[in-house]
Write a structure and sequence with these properties.
Shape: globular
Largest sheet: 7 strands, antiparallel
CATH architecture of the largest domain: 5 Propeller
Length: 495
């Protein structure tokens, strides 16, 4: 017999699905629609949620508002893929419908969380957020028994009815995993100006006990840690914690690597570092697939940014999927998954050559707005060198990716990139062995993702050039640059 709770949720899901269909039919403008990234059919998308490999498919849920291309009461959108490349949109998975996740005004909704495989079913754990409630944030459970298509909220919700103590700044974004026979959950929080992560444990996903503060800010790492994700990486007791700190200046996402003691519930830190050095990377989440890979998606936008695609009826996108690799020193590299190579179309190659100081070499084989580029340079031959992408015919619009040899700085300059925000994102980067600099770029209409020196540093940025700004060139300043190799591929649109 269907309960009143289930009926209310089904009604809200039906409304959201109808809004998705109607909204997507109205989107006609393609100028910023990405060709090979996961993005909403209509409306607003932010944090990736519930990334999971389940019954042979990758599932990606995400924060979603189907009614407008701006933030609103949060739903969970849903898509799945067989190959991490081509995505099928599925019905909305969660909608606010209960007193713990639906309010009459202000901020409310089914906030971020995670998905886990529990036997033959798929379970979602999420934060119910209602700004008028006390407490504002509680943790909730929803379960699917039809292979992850529809989800029923637990009658026992909220399964964690509030924070473990008073005075916390935030209590949200549960990330759940299983270690041996126990489920563990980390929740983002903050206290007395220091972000931290709270650890819970359970035997059945329904009853949870508070364990500890698993990790804590050193006082300079933001006052609340959103979207925590704690996972094993690299074997042994090695674990990595990813968080998105609030109020930490330019650092919007960081990772902490070290060893995790399940008995004590504590992460002992080896290294803490920014995860991505671009402007548009937030709230990443990971999954482990059937090959044992740790794969990450991030929200390819940032709060407070100008978002020109809103004018076209949609907003938000996920990054390309990235595999995480732990290095011996505790640092983490991000690499594009090899499945993306299936998108490669026409190949264009430039032979090794010198680019004379003060000149530009036109890359006439690049004529698309969806391109993969792999370029290898001598890092010290010129004072400054790199690429210009999405160039207008008159040279007034372009995005510059460059390297300054003197201070070992890699940068992306989007001051002349078109609509949207300008700014220069930078990171220190030492050349590879042999004094080489390797740049691996993914350009997709309104996005640019840069992987430098085999994923040692990454930068993720949105750009909004005119559709006919399709030129590209190599440049050198203050000496002759030496190009060792260059290859690009036009990338096909996903299905």
């Amino acid at each position: 017999m269907e309960t009143n709770q289930a009926k209310k949720h089904e009604e809200q899901i039906a409304r959201a699905n109808q809004a998705t269909e109607e909204g997507s039919s109205r989107i006609k403008e393609e100028r910023f629609r990405l060709r090979y990234h996961l993005m909403p059919r209509t409306g607003w998308m932010n944090d990736p949620n519930g990334l999971v490999y389940f019954k042979g498919s990758y599932h990606a849920f995400y924060q979603y508002y189907p009614y407008k291309p701006s933030w609103g009461p949060m739903h969970w959108g849903h898509a799945k893929s067989e190959d991490l490349v081509n995505w099928t949109h599925l019905p909305v998975a969660l909608a606010p419908s209960e007193p713990y996740d639906q309010g009459s005004s202000g901020g409310y909704g089914c906030f971020s969380g995670s998905a886990v495989v529990n036997g033959d079913s798929l379970a979602l754990l999420y934060t119910g957020h209602v700004s008028g409630n006390s407490p504002v944030e509680v943790q909730c459970l929803a379960v699917s028994t039809d292979d992850g298509i529809t989800f029923a909220k637990s009658e026992a919700n909220p399964v964690i009815p509030g924070p473990p103590e008073e005075g916390l700044f935030g209590f949200r974004d549960p990330k759940v995993w299983k270690h041996e026979d126990t489920w563990y959950m980390v929740i983002g929080s903050g206290q007395e100006g220091r972000g931290n992560v709270r650890l819970y444990a359970s035997s059945d996903l329904h009853e949870w006990r508070y364990v500890s503060i698993a990790a804590d800010s050193d006082g300079s790492q933001g006052d609340m840690w959103e979207c925590p994700d704690l996972f094993p990486l690299g074997g042994g007791e090695n674990h990595v914690l990813i968080v998105s700190p609030m109020n930490m200046g330019a650092t919007k996402t960081m990772y902490v690597s070290g060893t995790f003691d399940y008995e004590a519930g504590k992460l002992t830190t080896t290294l803490a570092e920014r995860l991505d050095y671009g402007f548009d990377f937030y709230a990443p989440q990971t999954l482990e697939d059937d090959q044992g890979r740790r794969i990450l998606f991030g929200w390819m936008n940032i709060w407070g940014a100008t978002m020109p695609e809103q004018q076209d009826g949609w907003m938000g996108a996920m990054t390309i999927p990235r595999e995480l690799i732990l290095q011996p020193d505790g640092s983490v590299r991000m690499l594009p998954v090899p499945e993306l190579e299936t998108l490669r179309g026409e190949r264009y190659e430039v032979e090794s050559q010198v680019i004379e100081a003060g000149t530009e070499l036109a890359l006439r084989g690049i004529t698309s707005d969806a391109v993969e580029i792999i370029a290898l340079f001598d890092a010290d031959a010129a004072t400054e060198f790199g690429l210009k992408l999405r160039c207008s015919a008159d040279g007034s619009e372009y995005t510059e990716v460059g390297y300054r040899a003197a201070d070992r700085t890699l940068y992306v300059n989007r001051d002349l990139a078109g609509l949207g925000d300008g700014g220069i994102s930078e990171v220190q980067l030492t050349p590879q062995d042999g004094g080489l600099l390797k740049l691996h770029l993914f350009l997709d209409r309104s996005s640019l993702e840069l992987f430098a020196n085999d994923g040692e540093k990454t930068m993720t940025n949105r750009i909004y050039p005119q559709p006919d700004s399709l030129g590209a060139s190599l440049f050198s300043r203050g000496g002759n640059a030496i190009l060792r190799s260059f290859v690009s591929y036009e990338l096909n649109a996903i299905q």
